[in-house]
Design goal:
It is built from eleven helices and eleven strands. It is of the alpha+beta class and 326 residues long. It has a five-stranded antiparallel sheet with strand order 3-2-10-9-8, with helices on both faces. A two-stranded antiparallel ribbon has the order 1-11. Strands 4-7 form a two-stranded antiparallel ribbon. A hairpin with a 3-residue loop joins β8 and β9. The chain is globular, with a radius of gyration of 20 Å. The protein starts with 8 loop residues before the first helix and ends with a strand.
Length: 326
């Protein structure tokens, strides 16, 4: 991937944050800086020297603000490590329409619910032709059968983003309100689901319904996969994410050499999203969330922007050296 313009040291430093758990209480705001001291890269992250930055890292990544401006839309990025530490962010606390990225925590809720004995993964949910939406490739294949297990539906919701599969699962969790309660119980006070498919994709400007922030979603999926889920269930969800067929041109297309990923994408017509479990060549796992709202470029360029943002974030992390401030 061609990376055209490198970040300045001040701009890159502005993207770094001391790695604290996302559940930590917020600190008091520091006094406002003078205009000339404000970093050139707009960011909601306080600058902090978490890393010693080699020149190779500075010359291999692009300013996310430049990538955002080229799309004509609004981009948000958050990268969280296994400890729940927010490592990098850009517009990390802005609200974005979730679109189908809600299906990742939905699948986690199904697995955790089964582990807790609320229902069995092999229990079947019946459906009729009225339950089959336009985009429901797996459920359509089972139309004659007229029922699918919860495990089959959760797998379909993640791997191919089957809309009917998600709708059939939601009542077992208490509907959108029940999924939101699950999300709250796992430490996320931002993400909310209010409607079902396809209404949740409306994405009206300023409407908080069915939204998240990059930091909230990355933090939620990090807590679920790395802490709250039983190991076998986390591995099962990893398998579904890795088998996903919808994100080939987004985060996965921007992976640096040796990195791997599995993700859950979301598209609302006016929004392009991807939330990925990424693994470095050394085996370190992160959650990377990238949301792009209302780009003026075409689909191909919007997805390429997500890929480039992912490449920049992961290339920097792979080349930066920890300073020892743990």
């Amino acid at each position: 991937m061609a990376l055209r313009k490198s970040l300045s040291l001040a701009a890159l430093t502005a993207c770094l944050v001391v790695a604290l758990p996302l559940s930590a209480a917020p600190k008091k705001k520091a006094p406002a800086k003078k205009a000339e001291e404000v970093p050139t890269l707009p960011t909601l992250m306080p600058p902090a020297p978490r890393y010693l930055v080699p020149q190779s890292a500075l010359t291999s990544v692009r300013n996310p603000k430049e990538i955002e401006e080229e799309t004509g839309g609004r981009m948000g990025i958050a990268l969280v490590d296994r400890d729940g530490a927010l490592i990098l962010g850009f517009n990390r606390d802005d609200r974005f329409a979730m679109c189908s990225t809600f299906k990742a925590p939905l699948a986690a809720a199904v697995l955790i619910g089964a582990q807790g004995g609320k229902f069995g993964l092999e229990g079947e949910i019946p459906f009729t032709k009225d339950d089959i939406l336009d985009y429901a490739p797996v459920v359509k294949k089972n139309k004659k059968r007229g029922r699918m297990s919860m495990a089959e539906l959760a797998e379909a919701a993640v791997e191919v983003s089957d809309n009917s599969a998600a709708n059939l699962l939601l009542p077992m969790l208490g509907g959108p309100e029940g999924l939101t309660s699950f999300i709250r119980a796992h430490g996320d006070k931002i993400t909310r689901l209010d409607r079902i498919e396809p209404e949740l994709n409306e994405n009206v400007a300023g409407d908080p319904r069915d939204t998240t922030s990059p930091a909230a979603m990355a933090g939620l999926m990090g807590r679920l996969l790395f802490r709250d889920m039983a190991a076998a269930d986390a591995d099962r969800l990893r398998g579904w994410l890795n088998a996903s067929t919808t994100g080939e041109k987004r985060i996965k297309a921007g992976l640096p050499e040796g990195w791997t990923s599995g993700s859950k994408t979301g598209s609302c017509g006016t929004a392009y999203n991807d939330v990925a479990l990424v693994k470095s060549p050394a085996g370190e796992e992160y959650i990377l969330a990238i949301y792009l709202d209302r780009p003026t470029v075409d689909d191909k360029k919007a997805e390429a922007a997500i890929a480039e943002a992912a490449h920049s974030a992961l290339e920097f992390v792979s080349k930066a050296q920890k300073s020892g401030l743990d």
